[in-house]
């Protein structure tokens, strides 16, 4: 381990300690007594509030009445953090109240002019692919708050143009292909249900039902797919279809390859037929075969409806 890496790790190691001895450093990092003393002196020089107390065991204390100095990142870590931060630009809404511009400014204030210039040059020639999130999710921060606080709540939800009311407890927030989703425990059905966050019209705390511990909801979530109304499917696709699968897929489906043939195998719940049909439409002529036949018929009916719609469009 290089000295710079060791000092970085040492700051983390000492961060929650009020006192330590030289032997703690020597055993932790496998260094000699003289190296441990030099490392402690280096930490003091970069601002870590350490002071020594006399004694043959080399006793040290860490002042708790001031902030520890910032952790020092190497160049690769700095670039990784910077460009990870920039991916937040893809989100119309995040659970955090922040400005990417202000966040960049604060980040750059911790760097030398040379490092800032290097970052800006890299930003001009290097970009990360991401899916743009266009939909505004008004209650995303409250959803996160209620999830962490394990609160039951009432939501008003836009389901296919009709406003419906649900009593739920949020369990997991996820981002997938341009949308925010929240997996929730439905107190009426006693089952898990997934909601698109941008379609939540109103949200308030509800004390009619006793909120559950997240670990208890996890047990329900683990058995979410072990239900009678789950429909399994198998779709064989071309090699070009494999690329499409990796661009967009969901936890309820897997790609399996057998004897140079490619299969999407998965399942969907009752009421999710339109979702799976719209998903499969993206594959077009990359579909080779579909099972069961009922799914194929639904796909054909959807194509027929789309054809009629296009024919009725005014020229």
UniProtKB/TrEMBL annotation:
It comes from the Bacteria. Gene3D superfamilies: Winged helix-like DNA-binding domain superfamily/Winged helix DNA-binding domain (1.10.10.10). It holds the Pfam family HTH_11. Residues 6-58 form the Helix-turn-helix type domain. Residues 139-204 form the WYL domain. PROSITE patterns: WYL. SUPFAM superfamilies: Winged helix' DNA-binding domain. InterPro entries: CBASS_pafABC_assoc_protein, HTH_11, WH-like_DNA-bd_sf, WH_DNA-bd_sf, WYL_dom. This is Transcriptional regulator.
